[in-house]
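Section 4.2 – Deliverable D4.2 (structural model, holo form)

The reporting period included a commitment to supply a predicted holo structure for the target in complex with phosphoric acid mono(formamide)ester. Inputs used:
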Amino acid sequence: MKDSEHKIDLLAIDDLSGNFSELIEWAIRIKNDDEALFDFKPLEGMTVGSIYEKPSTRTRVSFETGVSRLGGQPITLLAGDIQLGKSESIADTAAVLSRYMDCITYRCFGHEDVVELANNSSVPVINALSDLHHPCQAAADMMTIVENSEKMDGHVSWVGDGNNVLHDLLLGSAILGYDIKYATPEGLEPNDSVIARAKEIAVSTGSSIEGLNDPREAAKGAGVIYTDVFVSMGEEHMEGKMSSFEGFQVNEELASLANDGFLFMHCLPAHRGEEVTDAVIDSPNSVVFDQAENRMWAQMSILTLLCNETAWQTYWELR
Ligand code: CP
Ligand code: NVA
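Output (structure tokens):
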């Protein structure tokens, strides 16, 4: 695809709000469809390049395997190995890669960098995590919630830091109409403009969003408890940050406030003994490895929609 007028970029999960529910159903369908993996190759002849400025296990491997399963060629570009950030600008990198690739994924520090890459690229750009958003994570998270929706009783709760993973969980929950209560330490609340966007969507889907500073209030009666590391990648220098999270560990005592059969969720990697105890993450309530697997299926749905919408539609109608 070389048509910047009509491309869709995925920078935050609300970029896909019109198709989000179908995107997730599509991902669940292909996950459970053994036949499709043999005869459905919508990315045949296409190349997907992925730039990483930060480490990654799930995002990198799920993109590489997902692109391969769809018949495409994944190319991973580690920031230390390419000219970007040393002798070449983001804009020039975007223009060059658009001549080789059919889609670019980018894991960066500042969100403005993935916006700049998207603005200067003629092929779709997918945010593979920035400081502000992690839409691919939210796609897998909402897929996991939908898969468990019949047994889920209660709202989605968040206990932890107010940054990238929470931002897209807020938007994703609002799009699909799930109520969410989030608890963050004072001063670490989510970004105001993201909250405003999520609240506007929630009005249209009839769901609620409540911001708190008390993890117990968020966990009480929850159907999901979700947490993330207290100190994100790139924040290692913020020495005092960890002390803000006293009382925010998801342990058996906090989890006992949730409804029976609640789902414990974490984007991973987990820092066991910090934001979550072994007893909770290894309990039958934990769906963290389903979330990790669903990264691949959800991204396969996104990649097919962005790179070959006709094939996405055809699979949707035939299966
Ligand atoms: N959850 C997530 O994005 O994991 P990685 O950092 O391993 O890609
Ligand atoms: N908030 C975490 C998410 C890791 C997947 C970070 O940005 O490091």
